[in-house]
Amino acid sequence: MTTFQPAAVPGMAPPPDSVHPRDSKAEAPTSVSRLNDTIRGFIDRWGSVWVEGEVTSWNVRGGNVFGRMKDLATDSTVSFRVWSSTLQRLPSDLKAGDHVIACVKADYFVRTGDFTFAVSAMRHVGLGDQLEKLERLRQKLRAEGLFDPSRKKPLPFLPRTIGLITGERSDAEKDVRRNAELRWPQVDFRTAYAAVQGDRCVPETIGALKALDADPGVDVIIIARGGGDPQTLLGFSDERLLRAVAEANTPVVSAIGHENDHPLLDDVADVRASTPTDAAKRVVPDVAEQRALIGQLRSRMTSRLTQRVSHDIAQLEQLRSRPVLRAPEQMVDTRAQQIWLTTVRGRDVVDRALHTAERATAELRASLRALSPASTLARGYAIAQGEDGRVVRDATAAPAGTKLVITVERGIIAARSEGVSDVTVAPDPARDERAGAELE
């Protein structure tokens, strides 16, 4: 059967379906159907590809799944569709937040112009691959010193306000608050909610951490989440979150999962708690334990003081029991006679010393009197001095007419020399004997 094709009329535009998109122009546009067919033919030549990413949405409608997948390193996303026939062959535990690899083929709907990828196979990324990536990151952060104990900040003994980052209405929040309030009823919380899995986990947790770290009233920050499979805990091993925790000025406690869960956040945080309940116990002291401790300290202090006072009383009683302190006047009585004898002996010694000194003084006084010029004058002698004050010792030194000054025992006589005299003084033995004795 031959399809009738109308002949082109000169000066008229050809039908749109007959124009290829690459040959289209304003005078001869192509049709939407021809454009979609062309796009469909181009996309069909791509074939199937394997892609790795994180499932950000997983919606089941009519037995089919419609979802989106995000690149792990960037925010790039694609939509995908899983037909019910394919879904039966996939793992039954696939869900949003899973890290997967999928075999997809581009599919373009001509009628609606929608572009998506049809999934023919999908599975979780092997745990070995994840562990290898985490181990490489662990070695990198350890080499940078983010795990060093020296950089970890100590927890305050009794925080005024605890910052809590957790999922809204989560069991982890209830566990932390309940156990903290049981241990210390006056504890205060400042809670910042964040997604604890999926693509919003890391940015929301970082935002909450920065907000609480900037609050001067918050003394410690707890990042808490309940247990989960390793896939759902990957956000707490994200390098961006780990570096934000390392840069925080407020001490950070990691309380992710259960005892066996160990994301990298545990190594970077200042304190690792095995569970949210354990985090409350580590951050808040137990008021009952503190009261018991205070009671023990008071008891020990009372015992030590009682022991010290008893020891001092015993020493005082021992001192008081000594004879010298029991009857102190006895020591004075026994020493009184000795003190009297010593006093008498001292008085005698002083008296003898005074008598000896008086005699010596009298002798010295007599010697001084004997040698004194006044004593000599008192015996009748005189001192003759010339006008120049010189003592005349030779008669020839005072010729006639020389003015003399004669000093006797009582007064001074002005005289004039008559020259050398021939008169001799008669000797007087008694007088000379007295003078010699005085001179001696």
From TrEMBL:
Keywords: Cytoplasm, Exonuclease, Hydrolase, Nuclease. Its EC number is 3.1.11.6. It catalyses: Exonucleolytic cleavage in either 5'- to 3'- or 3'- to 5'-direction to yield nucleoside 5'-phosphates. It is an enzyme of class 3 (hydrolase). It is found in: Cytoplasm. Residues 31-123 form the OB-fold nucleic acid binding domain. CDD domains: ExoVII_LU_OBF. The keyword Hydrolase applies. It holds the Pfam family tRNA_anti_2. GO terms for molecular function: exodeoxyribonuclease VII activity. Signal peptide: none annotated. Residues 146-339 form the Exonuclease VII large subunit C-terminal domain. Residues 1-31 are annotated as: Disordered. Bidirectionally degrades single-stranded DNA into large acid-insoluble oligonucleotides, which are then degraded further into small acid-soluble oligonucleotides. Heterooligomer composed of large and small subunits. HAMAP family: Exonuc_7_L. Belongs to the XseA family. This is Exodeoxyribonuclease 7 large subunit. The lineage of its organism: Bacteria, Bacillati, Actinomycetota, Actinomycetes, Micrococcales. The gene is xseA.
